[in-house]
Structures are given as C-alpha cells and as structure tokens.
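look at this:
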Amino acid sequence: MLHLRMIVPPDRTEAVVELIGRTVGTAHLAVLPGAARDPSGDLVLCDVAREAGDELLHGLRELRLDQDGSIAVENIDLSMSERADTAEEDAPGEGADAVLWEQLATSTHEESTLSFTYLAFMLLATMIAACGVVLDNAILIVGAMAVGPEFGPLAGVCTAIVKRAPRLAVRSLMALLVGFLAAIAATTAFSLLMDWMGLFSREQLDAERPQTAFIWQPDPFSFVVALLAGAAGTLSLTSSKAGALVGVAISVTTVPAAANAAVALSYGEVGQTGGSVQQLLLNLLGIMLAGTLTLLAQKWLWETQRGKVKRRLRRG
C-alpha cells in the first residue's frame, strides 16, 4: 500500500475526493479543511494499493495538484486494516508488478544527475577495477562493479525513451558520457602513477589473465548477458524487488571495461584499449535495449490488464 498526503486548494477538494472515491483500490480517506498553511489549503490523506497508484497520481496531476498544491507519496510497510486488504484485492494486478511511472521518472532523474558524488563513485569504481585488472583479481572486479553508479543513467535513458522525455534522455546520456570519459582519463593517470611507484607494470597487463582477460575480449555472450542484466535491472527498479539491482551491477562489464581501457591506454596497448571500448559499448547498448523493451512490455501488459478490469467493472 501507498500513503498519499495532499495539500489541495479548497476549490479542488471536492474534485480530488471524487477522484479518490472512483479509483479502485483506495481506502482510509481523510479530509482536514484548512489544515495546510504553506501552501494554504485543505489536507487530504488516503491510502491506495500500489497497483492503483499510478492511475491516481496521473489524475491528481491532471487536476494540477502538483503545481498549485502538493502530493507526497510514502510506502506503507505495515497496514493492519480490513479496508486496506479489500482495496488491494479490488485493485487490478499485483502490487509487485505495478509500475509507478512518476516515481520511476523522479528516481531516474536523480540517479542520472551529473553530480560530484556520481563522478566520485565512477572514478573510484574504475580505479578499483584497474587494480583488479592488473592483479587479475576477480574479487576486485566484482567489487568495482558493485560500486559503479552507471545503471542510474542507463535506466534514465530507457525511461526517457518510453515516456518520450528528451530532457531526461540528454541528462542521462551526458552523465554516461562525461562519467566514463572522466573515469578513463583519471584512471589512466592513476595507472601511470602506480607504474611510477612500481605497483603496476606492462608485464602484468600483457601476462595471461584467466580471471579478467574476458574484459577486453567481447563475444556474443557479452551482449546476451547485457540484455539479461538490463531486463533484470529494469524490473528491480519498477517493482518492489530492488535487492536484485546489486546482482545486476556485478553481472555486466561496464566499469571493468573502462578500467582495462584506461590501463591499456597508459601503456599504449592499442589492441586491449580497442577491445575494452568495444566491450563497454556492447554492454551499454545491450542494457539500454533490454531496459527499454522491458519498460514497453510492462506498460503494455499493465494497460491491457487495467483495461480488462475497467470493462468488467462497467459490466458489473
């Protein structure tokens, strides 16, 4: 269940209450006239099943409540109420399958912002991966994958395509481009420093690396894994199964490929640099393609299911 707290201009309170009343899956409606001070208005509270949340939020935005008032949404971890149980039963579909497009757009917008924190994580992850590449250490590679923040902008691109939001697409692509270019440049300098300190060497890079050689040798499986990871990552963002995102992060070769490219570049290894860049681009393309197709499929399935429920209710 979701809890909605709304500040409503008095002239729209009746319309909001009517909208909540006709939305299948709502419960616990409360109206406090004149309770809000900034902005001034009525305070309206209600609970709604997650699977009905997107429809209600869309209706509230059509009433311009996001511009002239306020809409706050919170997840309810525990609700002991028969009315809430009934609301969830009446709402179409399952809560875990529901997509809150407003929440997805907001979260991907935040995750795709080119901030100092984003760049710091990108640089640190790539440097950790560089150590893993030179030492042929799979544990360091996995750790770097988990630290990398690149899935946020990738999800932003997918969301922008489905929602036709060009500004989000530009923001996300800029975060990816600047992030990886900065990471490769910084890691190249880091590699030169480590070489000067005697901790990195060309011999280590050119030696047989059974644990990490795949990073600069892309093959069809690289694209297959990227497709699967893109679909899984998108599902974890749109559902309540966010824990799966960690598994997605450590299954794609984006940050390690950037790291291998940087280390190889510092030693003038054109072959490894080119192979690593190909691996990076292949993974990025696979994730974005699968993520976009997954969102489109979810949107179609959810609209189809919701349409069936509405037709059944009209017949009833």
In short: The first strand starts at residue 2 and ends at 8. The beta strands are 2-8, 26-37, 40-48, 70-75. The two ends are 25 Å apart (CA to CA).
